[in-house]
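Running this now, will post back.
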Amino acid sequence: MIRLSWTLSYLMMPQRSKTETICMACQKTFHEIDEASACPKCGRQQESQNVCKDCQKWQANGSYYYINHALYQYDEAMKAYMHAYKFQGDYQLRHVFDTKFSQFIKKFAVFDLIVALPIDKTTWTTRGFNQVLGLMGDLSNNEVLYMKRDRDEKRQSQKKRNERLQTGNHFYVDVECRQQIENKKILLIDDVYTTGRTLRHAAETLYRQGSDRVESVTLCR
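Update: finished.
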């Protein structure tokens, strides 16, 4: 927890305060991914830079270029954070990572468009916010990708691994947005890469509509 002490001069002459949003002890519970020993295709932390078995399977079945870059490991501490942020709806928790994550995203300046993965209308209604947009800080999102999911269908977080891999593609590009993405290099943004099914569906949708290159950045893998 971060505790702040306000001085009398600050209270009398308020100004924008820049403070840390997470204490050092909590910060140490999250583990960054070391790119020197991570899968070069999905960012999974491992003991070498060899392509992991999951990505080998994707490569065998895929015909387009796609890789993911991730900042943190999706371990128990991160799972607890995501539960509080996404599923308990504590929107203020976006500030724990928004500065560092947005800086990580900016490393990929070669891309023409930054596109946050959208959420469906039911999730908007129940959650009240897109968790990906919250994590992006002050970065602008290009709203060219949309999602339409059956009302009664399970969310990805409710599915087992095999169910996730068999999920259909719910993404689409609006007719008015097609010209914006044609021949463009697009960087998808999401919070978690698990099986990769959702992000790859998004990439496939953008490629079908004429995108030149699609990669993604996730907070964790």
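Residues 63 and 147 are 23 Å apart (CA to CA). More later if anyone needs it.
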